[in-house]
Design brief:
elongated, Single alpha-helices involved in coiled-coils or other helix-helix interfaces, 4 strands, 197 residues, 2 domains, 4-stranded antiparallel sheet, binds flavin-adenine dinucleotide, alpha+beta
């Protein structure tokens, strides 16, 4: 799995604090919601559960090499914007499959690979026979890899990290949530620091 933040709000902590301050100060007055710095204010917002200012910062990530299974879980998050590589238009290569570690450890990995290779052979045969990609893909495994862009605001990123970074979450989406947290914490430490262990 490869994951990279490609864009985010400039000075996101300052933007969140600026948005929050309007609720206590009229325009033109000195911007001093809490008497403190942006990060101090953000920590107070977190303590108060005042989450709407966190919607004023957002980030876009590029993700490569997650399974369609992981994608199905990710797309349950309704406040996220997605752009996913199409299996209708782009041919799936035979080596583009995630094999879980548990399978590698079970001694069944070779058998898995044989089945995956077989399904790709039939996929290719179907394409050669004129079956469109959008139909030939039906036999490909749920472990097939995909690439996508996703974008959402920091409030929703916090929500995703809380749900998907938990030990209850499935390992692949948990790795993704941990990677989000890593990159977002660098960008806006005060927004995400409480989610770190
Ligand atoms: C450990 C784990 C196991 C899971 N297992 C399953 C499973 O077995 N089967 C399954 O189908 N799903 C499963 N899910 C997915 C889960 O049901 C949610 O669809 C997913 O986590 C998205 O969460 P959400 O709805 O809170 O978030 P988002 O869609 O990201 O929404 C964010 C928040 O916005 C608000 N919101 C959004 N839409 C509405 C709405 N229509 N009405 C009211 N409030 C709204 C809610 O406060 C919500 O928490 C699992 C998730 C986890 C973390």
């Amino acid at each position: 799995m490869k994951i990279k933040m490609v864009r985010s709000t400039d000075s996101p902590e300052s933007m969140i604090a600026q948005a929050a301050r309007i609720s206590h100060k009229a325009h033109g007055e000195e911007e001093d919601y809490s008497g403190g710095e942006d990060r101090e204010l953000i920590r107070k917002l977190r303590d108060w559960g005042h989450w709407s200012p966190f919607e004023f910062a957002s980030a876009t990530f590029y993700i490569e090499g997650i399974s369609r299974s992981c994608l199905a879980q990710l797309t349950r998050h309704r406040l996220v914007s997605f752009m996913v590589r199409s299996m209708r238009y782009v041919k799936q290569d035979s080596d583009e499959v995630v094999i879980p570690e548990s399978v590698e450890e079970s001694g069944l990995a070779e058998e898995y690979r044989e089945k995956i290779d077989e399904s790709h052979e039939l996929y290719q045969k179907s394409l050669d026979a004129g079956v469109p990609k959008e139909d030939a893909r039906f036999l490909l495994p749920i472990g097939s890899k995909t690439s996508l862009y996703l974008k959402t605001n920091f409030r929703e990123f916090r929500h995703i990290i809380e749900l998907r970074g938990s030990s209850e979450a499935q390992w692949e989406i948990r790795e993704l949530a941990e990677a989000f947290l890593e990159e977002l914490s660098e960008k806006a430490p005060a927004v995400f620091e409480d989610l770190k262990n």
